[in-house]
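Regression check, zinc ion case 227:
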Amino acid sequence: MLKSIINLFFPKTCCGCNSLLLTNEKVICTECRHKIPLTNHHLNIENEAFKKFYGRTPVVHASAFLYFHKKGIVQELIHNLKYRGHQEIGEILGSWYAADLKEVEVLKTVDWVIPVPLHKRKYKERGYNQVSTFGKSLAQELNLIYEDTLLLRTSYSTTQSKKNRVARSEGIESAFDTDYSEQHHNKHFLLIDDVITTGATLESCSRALLKIPGAKISIVCMAIAES
Ligand SMILES: [Zn+2]
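Current build output:
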């Protein structure tokens, strides 16, 4: 009752196109739902996301749910999720993508869902990690454990400028480390992020997780920037 009154004065709008949502629509309108560009990576093991990690770091599986285009619906969704507090977008994308990922044989051995950690400074500004609702929703639908304390960011200070020239050249401001114990040995980790561009951050995260004995890595993202 209260909800419908609030809705009368502050009608809900679609996070993709800003048009008014019908009462049976949630977060993303039906038109946007049909227009969002799907990659269908889950149908092809050797997809473009997977190929990004060739010769860089071993991954069991890599895929992104959507194509990210400048000024497209997906850019709008990610922007609303990252900067306007619409965390429900991650939740809905996670539940949609989980339905596809359930069909992927190699993902059936995944144990833990691990989000790419946010920089401390950014976490303070934003108050949330933009991939957490996506990860939690995937974990819930796929019956996995969501774990956001295993992988950590270790910042470089500017005085350490000599350190890790490669990381700096790829625009990475920080390195990653893991705080693991025996319970993390021999696990298959599903590393998640919002948009894959160069894959450099995900590569660094994978390397950190691979320090854990017997670790296997898969990668799933909300979107991939079309090159
Ligand atoms: Zn829409």
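Comparison notes: Residues 143 and 204 are 26 Å apart (CA to CA). Confidence is low (pLDDT under 50) at residues 157-163. No diff flagged against the previous build.
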